[in-house]
Amino acid sequence: MWTFIIRRLLQSAIVIIGVTLITFTALQMSGDPTYLYVSERATDAEIQRTREALGFDRPLPEQYITFLGKLAQGDFGDSLSYKRPAIEAVMEALPATLELTLFAMFLAIVVAIPLGIVASLNRGTPVDGSIMTMGMLGQSIPSFWLGIMMIMFFGLQLRILPISGHVPFIMPLVQGNFVQAFSSLPQALYYLIMPGFAVAFYSISRNARLVRSSMLEVLGQDFVRTARAKGISETAVVIHHALRNAWLPVVTMIGLEFGFLIGGVVVVEMVFSWPGIGRLVFNAINQRDIPVVQAAVVTLALIFIALNLIVDLVYAKIDPRVKL
Amino acid sequence: MRVFNRYLLALAMALPAAAHAAPPENTVVVGLSADASTFDPAQISSRDNSNIAKHIFATLFQVNFEGQVEPYLVDKTTVSDDGLAYTFTIKQGLTCDDGEPLTAEDVAYSFNRPADKALGFTGNTPGFVYTTLGFKSAEAVDELNVTINLTAKTTLALGMMSQVFIHCKDSYEKMTLEEAASNPIGSGSYRLATWDRGSQIVLEKVKDPGNFETIIWRIIPEASTRTAELIAGNVDIITNVAPDQVAAVDASGTATVAKVDGTRRMQIGFNLGKGVEGMPGAAEIQDPKVRFAMQYAVDVPSICSQLLGTECTRMTSLVNPPNGNPDLVPIPYDPDMAEKLLDEAGYPRGENGVRFSIRLQGPRGRYLNDANVVQAIGQYLSDVGINTEVELLEWASVYSPLLRTKEMGPLFFLGQGGVTWNPLYDMSLFSTKDGATNYQSWTDQRWFDDWALAIDADTVEEARPVINRMLKLFYEEGPWLQLYFQLDFYGVSNRLDWKPRRDEEIDLFTASLK
Q1: Would you call A275 and B198 a contact, using CB atoms and an 8 Å cutoff?
Q2: CB < 8 Å to A276, chain B
Q3: pTM for the complete prediction?
């Protein structure tokens, strides 16, 4: 187990270096960030002075090594547009994104699994057809379009859900303000419904199809027929025998789901004015705020790597045949 | 199950009420596309940021709705004979948010702090405001009198000083720069109550003027979401309504769109400098007759009505109304005249119908419907035989660096900000031949000789004959193909009495409920 964890951590370090190298190079290639610091009327001399003061005049390898050295100390530099440590801006936005992503993951699991089971148990019927049609739709509709349609219908026509905004839940929890966190939970969920569903819709559709096919495969195996032959109730067969065995691909999928969902929140955060890391990165890219982009990408990469590690360990726990 | 049903019913009853949480009567809510980045008065650089800050920090002067500079904290102004020293007597009984009396020493500190190079500020004040103002130093004469020293005489002085936010010395000397960025101690009518970054900024009223107890600035980057919030009645004012959403807002019954000609001057710049030497079209546009002829080829009113969704007036110069030369009339759309003048200039159509070729560059997404406007202009020019190759570029990473190095063009689409309080501010884009804002590298000596005369006059009125002469030259031979003043679209709730300003300032001091 420990050998596996150490090996994975070493692999992770290489991935992190790769991530920093790619983001650093890509952003440097997008233009000179010095112009962000100077006014429209700045003279050439002022621009040059600013460039030198910020170190943008140095060779790229030197800038990268300096960046890595600071990164090792948790210093991503100051945000060019917010004029404060970039990591602070990322850490402030991260809880909102985690709320949205975790809620979307929750939806992607609790909605998709029952739908997949129902579809598999009603194979070839209109119920199965309806669920699979919804699955096709879900995988075809872009999340931003769905978000706008939901705003139009639930926000403007029915006026039962808020169009935009955010009530924090995780941040008060992290700050130890449990009373505030739990008293704001209903409002937080209320604001989460539309953006959460917009983010999760693709995953719900994909996961429902996955669960359906996985269940169909298991339901056709001998041990399920044997269980049924023994007279065990259909509910018990589905839950204790079939679902337990159909669970493995779903667990793998959930691990990857987080990375997928966090990538999908960028557009949805823009549509719903969600003050999360996706919107932060979107704005930072537009403003060429290099430190914020780097801090956000590295932070997300770290989270993704940690989650994958956890999923691998859980996977091994569920299925003893898997060797670490 | 019954419990669950009861919960659902309660939720269904509660949700609409919450979703319809319209602002209370003592609150005004503004939907902005971007968050503030700092509230340090010396670090603020964006218009949205400044619009919020102007409710927190008072200024010596302010520019009113009509575009006139008027006193705010100042009671009396005295100018030295050489025009290099302005002594202001501030009003009595002024205070900052923390209760500290606001004195002449605080005003001097507010001017000197942004100029302190050791603090490394990069906001508008230490940047273009002080550069244009020619700020040298500030000193308190006594409790109520402060003197601002300049390096050169200028009629722009009071207007530029109206951009400097006043704050109290004792409070700011106690704070680190990081603390100052998020804990403003203001001198204005409102104080910062909360700032949920990326979400909303709440201001609370502490003194007059101001008709609302609370101002909420909600950050809603997506244009269609801002529009939806306005229509739903959750916000009172939104900025940057997309032209294609104007009809939806006007038909909503809850809000309307207010349109205003802004002070940003949209133009096709002629790049006359070395950055385009050798490129097709670069030599042809050196001839002022060609530049003037091309003005007739573009139908500006149609571009406004078809692509921007509103009527607009074609500019006659780089100066915002009403400060321009009143004798100049907008150049009409007359392609026959364009062809005639191009023939006379020595560029007849060839066998293929082409007079000459040229490249027109423009940004995508920087200005209102910019890509479509640039493509339309390219077509208009092609119609009169100027084979125009349109190239649309990403603003931040490509277009902006090209502008800085003056390598765009030979034709390029650009909007440059101006004001309503002094024509010389607008004309200062061409204060020197190699100035940073002279993107066109226009070097007509007649203009620069007159500029020296105009800037040396004691008042704008005294300089008016020279200004009019300069604007006529700019009209006939200048480096801009003149288009329109950038149109600004604001969504305004029906419950609110508020008019947008031309200078993109959001002034809520005069806003009130109907």
Answers
A1: yes
A2: 198
A3: 0.84
